[in-house]
């Protein structure tokens, strides 16, 4: 008897195909637009700082902006773009394997999802790295749990 892919697993794989595809595109775009992105972030922080100067908490917000600005550079944005593309390719490969009901796909997916959590912390550090990692962690951990519920259908 041939194994049939459950609908839930099919939906998860399709969502991963879309998300990983977007991640690959986003990573390439971030790499190519690193200098522009860096300039826009700095310009935005400078304008925001000018607007809040003299208000309560302006000093604390200024320190936060400075911390984020110092943790970013065009080189780090490019490195993060590369990491995003690579981790998205890994999760895509995992989803393709799970689409074919291969259990190894789950483990490949887990490696990609964990790498996507670790990469921004390693690249940016500080608050910016923590924010990027928390976004990756939410989706990655959720999908790991949802895929784990389907392990019994994989061989």
Structure explained in plain terms:
With about 160 residues, this protein is an all-alpha fold. Helix content is about 85%, strand content about 0%. α2 runs antiparallel to α3 (about 60-70), α4 (about 75-100) packs antiparallel against α5 and α5 runs antiparallel to α6 (about 125-150). The model has no long low-confidence stretch (mean pLDDT about 90).
Features:
155 residues; 6 helices; elongated
Summarize the SSE layout with pairings.
Layout: H1 7-32, H2 34-52, H3 58-71, H4 74-99, H5 104-124, H6 126-148
Helix pairs in contact: 1-4, 2-3, 2-4, 3-6, 4-5, 5-6
Tell me the Rg in angstroms: 19 Å
Order of helices and strands: HHHHHH
Shape: elongated
Q: Report the total helices.
A: 6
End-to-end Cα distance, whole Å, is 13 Å
Structural class: mainly alpha
According to DSSP, the number of beta strands is 0
- Give a short account of the largest sheet: none
Percentage of residues in helical conformation: over 70%
List unreliable stretches of 5+ residues: none
Strand residue percentage = under 5%
Mean pLDDT: 92
